Each structure stands twice: as C-alpha cells, then as structure tokens.
Amino acid sequence: MIPESILRRKGSRNTASVPTEVLSLLNQGSLETVNLCEWLVVDQLNLAEREFPKFGWQKLLPTLRERFAKHMPLTAPKKLLLIGSLLAEHFTTPASIRSASQLLLVQPSDIVRSWGAYLIGLNAGLSLNEKLHLIRPYAADPNMSTREIAWLALREATIADLEMSILA
Predict the structure, then answer these.
(1) CA dist., res. 95 & res. 99, Å (int)
(2) Which of 22, 80, 120, 164 has the most CB atoms in a 10 Å sphere around its CB?
(3) Helices vs. strands in the chain: H and E counts, helices first
(4) Alpha-carbon dihedral sign for residues 138, 135, 44, 100
(5) How does pLDDT run across 75-92, given as a tens digit for each residue?
(6) What's the rounded Cα separation, in Å, for the pair 102 and 76?
(7) Buried b (16+ CB within 10 A) or exposed e, 78-103
(8) Is the pLDDT of residue 4 over 90?
C-alpha cells in the first residue's frame, strides 16, 4: 500500500531531490511519475528487468541490455524509444501487438505504459489507421507523459502518410 502522501505529492524541483522512497517505487513500476524530474530519473533498464518477466518477455532482456550498453549514455526519451523499438520488432502480428499493448496499458507506471505507445507507433506491421486506433487509449492516458509519448510514437508515421492522418 502506497502512502497517501506519496500518491498526492507535487514532485521534486530537481532530479537530485526525488525522495528515495518515491524513486524506489518508480523503479519498481508501482508508481507513476508526476513531473519531468521524476520521469528523468527512472532507471528504465532496471524497470524492464523487473517488468518483462511478469509478462513472460524475459528472453528479450539480453538484447535490451546489449542495446543499452551499445548506446550509452542514453537520455530518458532515447531509453523509451529503444525499449519500444525492441517491443515493436518482437511483436509483429496484429494479435501479439494487441495483446502486448493491453498488458502495458494497465500498468501503474506511466513509463511502462509509454513503452506500449512506442510498441504501436513504431510497429511496421500496422497501418497508420490501425496505429491510430490502437494508440487512442494511450493518447487519453491520465498521465501527461504517456499522452506526450503517444504523439511522439506516431509522429513519423503521421508525417509519412499525412493525407491519411488528416482524413482519419
């Protein structure tokens, strides 16, 4: 049970002052971020190492670790992109994309939910219309960072098919 004081927090003014208990809960995937400072300090590799086995995706972890090591240092947005890209490469059928997306969508962590937005937005196996349909719950997420990532995840596909984007 997460204390009410943590759930109603305003967020730290800088990354160094994120309370240890909050950081621990963020890195466990038990809590969503409330501001950019918190969002920036989440250890996404550690979070993936905790979350992927829950979904039965542990076989993706060696590749993820390799990619993180190859691209270090990584910014927080690049980490999201890297994890989402790996998921988009792995889940390629409409059924597997939907299934993985639904698992990610209901997680307490906005970071984990954001991976789902990238899974959809970067997935070469989906048309723009399918992406728009599947990403809608992410674009309506209560957390501002997940909503922003939903847009970022679709940006390239939208630009590539601008006419369809406008008509959709």
Answers:
(1) 6
(2) 120
(3) 11, 0
(4) positive
(5) 999 999 999 999 999 999
(6) 23
(7) ebbbbbbbbbbeebeeeeebeebbeb
(8) yes
